[in-house]
Amino acid sequence: MSEPVFDHLQAAFGVRLFTVTAHDRDGMVFRRCHTSHPADYPLAGTKPLTLEDPWSRQVITLGQTFVANSPDRFRDLFADHAQIAALGCGSVANIPVSDDRGRVMGTVNALDVAGHFTPEMLGGLEALVRRNCPALLRAFADATF
Predict the structure, then answer these.
(1) Residue 144: its pLDDT value, please?
(2) Which of 41, 49, 87, 112 is in the most buried spot, having the most CB atoms within 10 Å?
């Protein structure tokens, strides 16, 4: 069952593909806990979490939003880049969700057409995630790894 905060954010973001992932740093895995496309990006299972690649260093280690407004900016970072393109997505924004100690506990992931994420739009999306941070952290705590 989807968390209300996930549904609220998905509606507010209004993008082609929307997912939320919870991160388990102790187990070095992340799990999709919400998806707008369950057939393409199902909830089941986990994926390994590495802190060595540029995306992970930026988003997980530094807690900074990752934005790529064209496929060539994320092609080398995402193994599923062809699947992303097949869904008509050419841009991505991964917004980290941090606890009160600054540890990234998960990400809100939005994908849409190339060039979609303007600085103004991104600022609004980041503010929306911050306002919903307590509910997101509660949902992450309930995620089963």
Answers:
(1) 67
(2) 112
The 3 state secondary structure assigned to 105-119 is EEEEEEEECCCCCCH
132 closest CA partner among 18, 17, 19, 10? 10
Q: Considering just the CA atoms, what is the radius of gyration of the chain in Å? A: 14
Residues in the chain, overall count: 145
Q: b/e per residue, 78-106, with b = 16+ CB within 10 A? A: beebeebeebebbbbbbbbbbeeeeebbb
For residue range 8-39, what is the model confidence (pLDDT) as tens digits?
999 999 999 999 999 887 888 889 999 999 99
Rounded to 10°, the helix 133-142/4-13 angle is: 130
Kindly report the CATH number assigned to the domain that includes residue 105: 3.30.450.40
Q: Going by C-beta distance under 8 Å and a sequence separation of 6 or more, which residues neighbour residue 50?
A: 28, 56
| Residue-number span of the structural domain to which 91 is assigned | 4-142
Domain count within the chain: 1
Max distance between CA atoms of the chain, in angstroms, equals 38
